[in-house]
Specification:
With 283 residues, the protein is of the alpha+beta class. Helices cover 27% and strands 20% of the residues. The structure holds zinc ion.
């Protein structure tokens, strides 16, 4: 599932290859991909045909391109990809939305095998589309407020990992990077947020920024080759993970076997020694 670094890589790809160009045709090949569009596929197509894409922006795992005062909002879901390439190439059966441009250059295809992703046009959404206005800034946005996050953590009675995944507190962190950041900060995932002290909060935030920043760098290097780019999965196989998916393998810091716990129908990976279980825990 694409997380913030992958989505940011896609955003940069859009900025480089699509922004500044005028849409010639829009074809919706699967209506589910525009299910959030109030008046359906026709509205989606007519709102975009002939218009130019002015900028590519992101909040958390959402992307949007400003189209005048409006926004073309996208979420990649579990398997969505935005692919740029020669218009003549074959159309895969997973293409859901297909954009061509007035300059007859590379086209843009939203492919999504599992169709959990979607796109929609939001009127007057250029600055911040209304459907995502409730999502908190991510740690790289200028609007991100570390002091406010520290206050929220102390005020919530929840587990640390649940808080990191709560997009209304901090956005852009998914299961993988939450585990990696907690390992780096030496904090257990079920630690009650209200017991976190100032230095621990700072350590956690620094770890979140490091983990996301490193993944961003890794993702950023892979898509520079045009025509295979803007691929939400690019960085996945190359980055080295410290705990995620490494059950039973040695902790990269102390050698203790990594532990896997069930967590919200998924898993949490941690080092039992570096991240001791808290006395009271919010599982
Ligand atoms: Zn360890």
């Amino acid at each position: 599932m694409p997380e913030l670094p992958e989505v940011e890589t896609v955003r940069r790809g859009l900025e480089r290859h699509v922004v500044g160009r005028t849409i010639d045709t829009v074809r919706v090949l699967h209506p589910r991909a525009v299910r959030r569009q109030p008046a359906g596929p026709e509205e989606f197509c007519s709102a975009l045909t002939g218009r130019s894409l002015d900028s590519a922006r992101r909040r958390g795992k959402y992307l949007w391109m400003s189209v005048g005062e409006d926004a073309l909002l996208a979420h990649l879901g579990m398997s969505g990809q935005l692919l740029v390439g020669e218009p003549e190439r074959p159309v895969s059966p997973h293409v859901r939305i297909w954009f061509t441009f007035a300059d007859a250059g590379p086209d843009l295809r939203f492919t999504d095998q599992r169709t959990f992703g979607h796109m929609c046009v939001v009127r007057d959404g250029a600055e911040l589309p209304e459907p995502i206005a409730h999502i908190a800034p991510d740690p790289f946005e200028p609007a991100f407020d570390p002091a406010a996050l520290a206050r929220q953590l102390r005020g919530r009675r929840t587990g640390l990992k649940r808080a990191l995944l709560d997009q209304s507190m901090i956005s852009g962190i998914g299961n993988i990077y939450a585990d990696e950041a907690l390992w780096r900060a030496r904090l257990h995932w079920a630690r009650p947020t209200e017991t976190l002290n100032g230095p621990e909060t700072s350590r956690l935030l620094a770890a979140v920024r490091e983990v996301l920043g490193e993944a961003l760098e890794a993702g950023g290097t892979t898509f520079d080759s045009l025509y295979v780019n803007v691929n939400g999965q690019s960085g996945y196989f190359e980055r080295s993970l410290a705990v995620y998916g490494r059950e039973g393998r040695p902790c990269r810091r102390c050698g203790t076997p990594v532990r896997r716990d069930p967590f919200m129908n998924r898993s949490s990976y941690s080092c039992p020694r570096c991240q001791p279980r808290p006395r009271r825990a919010h599982w």
